[in-house]
Structures are given as C-alpha cells and as structure tokens.
C-alpha cells in the first residue's frame, strides 16, 4: 500500500471511529466497509476490526463511565452469555457471501426502525427479563464473533426500541459490551491459529484519536436527539456498505 493511500485509510478510520464512538460503538462495521473500499484482503477484515473495536470501545467505556451513564444492571445479563459465544464465533469462519448480506440487512432494518424512535421522558424505562437478556446476549455474542462487528451495533437499537434504557445509558452499556465481546472474539480468532495483520498498529492509533473525540462529544456535548439520529445514520451507512461492498 502506497503512502498516500495509507494516509487516506488512516483518515477514514479516524472519522469512522469518531462517528461511531459518539454513540458508544467501536465502529467495526465501518472499518470493514472501509477496508473493503481500499481493496484490503477479506481475510484481514475480522482481526483488524476487532482490534480497532478494542481500542475505541475501551476509550468510549472510560469516558461514558466517568460521565455517570453506565448501568451494571442493564449490562451484565447480556454480557454473561455473549462473552463465551463471541469466543466461539471468533474461532469459527462464516463465508463472506452469507454473513455480509445478513449483517447488512439487519443493520438497515434497525436504522429504519430507529429513525422513528424518540426518547419519551414520561414513559418509564423497563428492564428485560433474565431469560430474554441471556438469549439475546448469546445470539449477539455469536454474531459478534462470527462477523467481527462487536455486537453493540445490534444491542443499541434493541435496548432503545424496547425501552430498556435511556440513550446515553445505552451508549455506555454498548461500549463495554463491544469491548468484552471484541476481546473474546479476538481470542477465539487467534486460538484458531490466525494472525493480526502488520498494518493494524497505525490504524489503531488513528482509531484511538477518533475514539477520544467522538466519545467526548457523545458523552456530554451532543444532544440526545442528535445521538439517536447519528446512530440511525451510522446503522444505515454500515448496512448499505455491507450489502454493496
């Protein structure tokens, strides 16, 4: 890869990280789409996205947690089953012609539904039942490991649409959910004797910079309505990228 092309790739990763981290996401689907646009080998998609997810989700978790938005009660029922399932998914491989259209359709459907969502202050937040949370966590964890997308991009719309949490609370929970599942998925990937590409470290630095910017804006500066719109836009763009790239 030439220096000008690498510079453009670094800039794209920084922008993706900033946008996704503003809503508590690691940005894996955006990184996968970006790597595809830059003609990077598909075998590098999952490990690269998982590493960048770890960096950005780690930053987002710290910033949203310090801002007081994190809810352990909402987080743990989903995480307890998602972590082992994410490891299994990271170990396994799914053919591109199956997982990319599937993930793309789910993202676009979530974006369309979420675009009509607004946080209603008069409607109390409901907490999911344990069996439902365990099942959802297992499914999202497996999908996270198989595709390398972290799982938060599916968890956020689920929590918001079912009124299981407030917007910034959901962003904080999604950030840690992505962090633990990306770590589990990456461990599963490495345990199957697959490697991390050599160009990942500079991309990780770009993702770290974008993650700091986006998390700071999302945790305190951006209005709630803006965060919901940003999340919907992110889901829509990522979905079409997965379907078309």
TrEMBL record:
Q: Membrane-spanning residues where?
A: 48-67, 74-92, 98-116, 137-164, 170-187, 199-218, 224-244
**Compartments it resides in:** Cell membrane; Membrane
- The organism sits in which domain of life? Bacteria
Against Pfam families, the record matches this protein to: TauE (PF01925)
Query: What cellular component GO annotations does this protein have?
Result: plasma membrane
Give the record's keywords alphabetically: Cell membrane, Membrane, Transmembrane, Transmembrane helix
Task: Please give the InterPro entries that the UniProt record associates with this protein.
Answer: TM_pro_TauE-like, TSUP/Inactive_protease-like
Q: How does it sit in the membrane?
A: Multi-pass membrane protein
Keyword field contains Nucleotide-binding: no
The family classification in the record reads:
Belongs to the 4-toluene sulfonate uptake permease (TSUP) (TC 2.A.102) family.
Family annotation (PANTHER family):
MEMBRANE TRANSPORTER PROTEIN MJ0441-RELATED, MEMBRANE TRANSPORTER PROTEIN-RELATED
Q: What is this protein called?
A: Probable membrane transporter protein
Give the originating organism.
Citrifermentans bemidjiense (strain ATCC BAA-1014 / DSM 16622 / JCM 12645 / Bem) (Geobacter bemidjiensis)
Lineage of producing organism: Bacteria, Pseudomonadati, Thermodesulfobacteriota, Desulfuromonadia, Geobacterales
